[in-house]
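Q&A log
Question type: sequence-to-structure
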Amino acid sequence: MSEKGPVEEGVTLELANEYASVTVREVHTHNGVRLEITAPRLGRAIRLCPIELETLTWQGHDTFSKYLATPFGPEGEPE
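Response status: OK
Response body:
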């Protein structure tokens, strides 16, 4: 997560199945409201602004299927 500064935390919702587990919560930062999505088992998190979230609705399921082919990026890429 790249945003710094004071954060007001909201209610946390956990979504899980046999393949993945994530927590989702609304956070208020000095840059405005964000949706924070965390994958606790992977130690990864991201905060998305409303426009970033809206762009997800523009995508079809095929887009997300492509992400799952290389979920951590192209092989050989530095982390």
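Response note: Strands lie at 8-16, 21-29, 32-39, 44-48.
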